[in-house]
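Entry 0007
Protein: 8-oxo-dGTP diphosphatase
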Amino acid sequence: MPGCSPLPIVFCFLLGEKGVLLYRRMTAPWNGTVTVPGGKKERGETAREACIREIEEETGYRLRSLRLRGIAHILSGEAEATGYYFSSRDFEGELRESGEGVPFWHPAGESLSLKGINPFYTLLAPKILDETAPLFEAKILSDEQGIRSSSFENA
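Output (structure tokens):
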């Protein structure tokens, strides 16, 4: 909607011995693509609280700690979103599916070339998987065909 506040969304890269936890989405948007777990921030939540909730809802894991890795301002037609990207190596619980998708572990180094990988994952993962990389702020322009342009700055 024109003139509306950006939709706040969160995503979390869980990193472990088996690589990165990926998520095959079974709902719109991006139905069928592979990315990391995440979703919309709810009213009254901080981005961190939303990330913790989304991870538990979508994977069964409970985050004990997490780190903000970057913020992306995403423009797609008339829609606008602000994405908060986190990572964590500190979680517990049993992995399970949800009605929204199927989580699975995959070697991080091979994730960028995985069939069906989401273009936002391909763009952002190198900055997040490199745990020494600084916090980033990005501006991403996209449409139905994918990402049209992007720019990054260290925050």
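Curator remark: The chain has a mean pLDDT of 93. The chain has one domain: 7-154.
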